Amino acid sequence: MTKRILITGGGGFLGRYVLEQCLEKGHQVGNLARGDYPFLEQLSVTQHRGSLEERRFVFESVEGYDAVIHVAAKAGFWGRRDDFWGPNVRGTENLVEACIKHGIRQFVFTSSPSVIFSGAPQSGCDESLPYPDHFESPYPESKAASEKLVLDANCESFMTCSLRPHLIFGPRDPHLLPKVLQRAATGNLIQVGPGTNRVDLTYVEDAARAHLLALERLTPGSPVCGSSYFITQDEPVELWPWVGSLLKELRLPPIKKRIPLGLGRAIGGFLEVSHRILSLQSEPRLTRFLASELAQDHFYNIEKAKTELDYQPGFNMAEALEKTLPFLRTLF
């Protein structure tokens, strides 16, 4: 059944794949974003240009759609809490309230596994893991608040769910792998921890497809309504050997600097304090949150997504990386 779907952040990395897959399914698509994307005009996508924090703009933009896929967010491991809270929490609140007012019945939210990251290793955890009492970064704190807002709004007339794709990579990636590889290329990539931690990743085409599967299953009485789901390739890798093999494939310098987690967290804490005191706008090279992420396990059980969303990765990790390498080679 053809739907009128509004996507937020449809010009971004994941959002663009979601948008393209919606078009492939024959849906009518609109994009709500701060930026202007000329390539979307060629795809006959209606563009709503503005901020999610502008309540009136959001209420006007959502009118006439059947469903919303909310991908847009401010991401990052460092920054002022208010800089994340505005777009991520107040923006989501505006969007949810606008949907309810205009009778939009389906709402898929892009979240993150970091919403349940407590600082401890996470090895095969499922969705029963609670939100932590404390966050070491404003990004996961704001995403957790947004996710709770979305799931709490679920009801018979407004069906919602939340997806938690982990470390998305693939062609057109402007964030994850290019930043890691750039650090390696300049000799600034430091291994934190012994290097044996296992980590999940998610290929972007599969992450996008999970959103469409969720939308299709947001129906009255479905267990998907009001639920959250981890989304991964279901094939965790040993992070640092995997990065090392990628560097070799791209003929980039190998990692030579290694520090233990305790030292990494101490350095991260020092840099956080220094940046606050000096009011530096740049991201610290390391934070406590980032050090823990780089050194510890974080991989997840996706059985719930398999059972309730009928989600299965379309590519194994080797295939996903093979599809990504041509893009990465254009960068380095």
Written account of the structure:
It is a single chain. This protein has 332 residues and is α/β, with parallel strands linked by helices. It has a domain at 4-168 and 200-234 and 300-314: Rossmann fold (3-Layer(aba) Sandwich). The chain is built from twelve helices and 15 strands. The chain has helices spanning 13-24, 38-42, 55-62, 81-101, 138-152, 176-185, 204-217, 239-249, 261-278, 288-295, 303-308, 317-331; strands at 4-8, 28-33, 46-49, 67-70, 106-110, 122-125, 159-165, 168-169, 190-192, 198-199, 202-203, 227-231, 237-238, 257-259, 298-300. The chain has a seven-stranded parallel β-sheet with strand order 3-2-1-4-5-7-12, with helices on both faces. Strands 6-15 form a two-stranded parallel ribbon. The model has no long low-confidence stretch (mean pLDDT 95).
Short description:
By secondary structure, this protein is α/β, with parallel strands linked by helices. 43% of the residues lie in helices and 17% in strands.
Keywords, please?
two-stranded parallel sheet, alpha/beta, 12 helices, Rossmann fold, single chain, seven-stranded parallel sheet, 332 residues
